[in-house]
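In this section we turn from sequence analysis to structure. A common task in structural bioinformatics is to predict how a protein folds when a small molecule is present, because the ligand can shape the pocket around it. The inputs are simple: the amino acid sequence and a SMILES string for the ligand, here flavin-adenine dinucleotide. Study the lines below before reading on.
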Amino acid sequence: MEKSPYNATVTGKILITPDLMVLRMKTDEPRIKFRAGQYTSIGLLAGEGRSPNSVIQAENMPSDYLITRPYSIASANHETQNFEFYISQVKSGSLTPRLFNLTLGSRMWVDKKIIGIFHLNETPPDCNIVMIATGTGLAPYISFLRSHIKDHKDIKMVVLHGAGYPWDLGYRSELEFIDFNFDNFFYFPTLLKADESWTGLRGYIEEHLKNKLLEDIGVEINPLKTHFYLCGNPKMVESVTEFLEKRNYIIHSKKHPGALHIEEY
Ligand SMILES: Cc1cc2nc3c(=O)[nH]c(=O)nc-3n(C[C@H](O)[C@H](O)[C@H](O)COP(=O)(O)OP(=O)(O)OC[C@H]3O[C@@H](n4cnc5c(N)ncnc54)[C@H](O)[C@@H]3O)c2cc1C
């Protein structure tokens, strides 16, 4: 009999909406300590069932084919055996409908490698950190905050999160709790489709940057003073990048360090 590739067990599944969830798992063996903001791959065999809330696809993968995709880790970097991910279901996708069909105790695969350059290690300790996300692009920032909020008392840290409706704001209560308890942390959700009961920000993230949301809380848009992190929708990444490049920001890479850090989903 073929040996199963599975090496982890589902320990938690919180459906924020029918298509958005926090998924927790425990790997059989611990992973090496990673940097908050990095990602790993997770996977399921093609033979696993799809969620009832997905689109039936004509798939011609053998049932023992392991479907894998990368996901940013949302848990703190000292948790090397218990991992959390923030995942949206692509109804016609290959992996996410199977992930949404998992239940507590289900087995799955988690890569041994944890990689990526989207982390805080090369950001000078005296620079403010602005974390901009759409949708599940919030995941690496949850790891940043859970891992490092206590180390950054002398700078300002900001989360700007764009979503459709209030119920799409995963981690809202955790971020509001941090905002309430840390004077140097600011949480700004901005919604595109909320009704009149929503009293917070509305519209596109770029508009808030242009309207000096950051300057109003004492955060200067200057690469020597503030590092920006962008994660999520390519259109948001493109337009915020354009805005920041006009203000002398350079996209960070291993070869060319810069104050603009990007992860596209
Ligand atoms: C570094 C990295 C980190 C990532 N982290 C996360 C994360 O934390 N959470 C998360 O939910 N996803 C994350 N992703 C995306 C993830 O890897 C998958 O691409 C996504 O979950 C779709 O997988 P799938 O197998 O269901 O769909 P696929 O079968 O791979 O895709 C089906 C189709 O849907 C499109 N598609 C892919 N993603 C989306 C989307 N979000 N909305 C609409 N259409 C889409 C694809 O372009 C493709 O055409 C990350 C990607 C990268 C590269």
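The two ends are 37 Å apart (CA to CA). As an exercise, try to locate the residues that line the flavin-adenine dinucleotide site and compare them with your own expectations.
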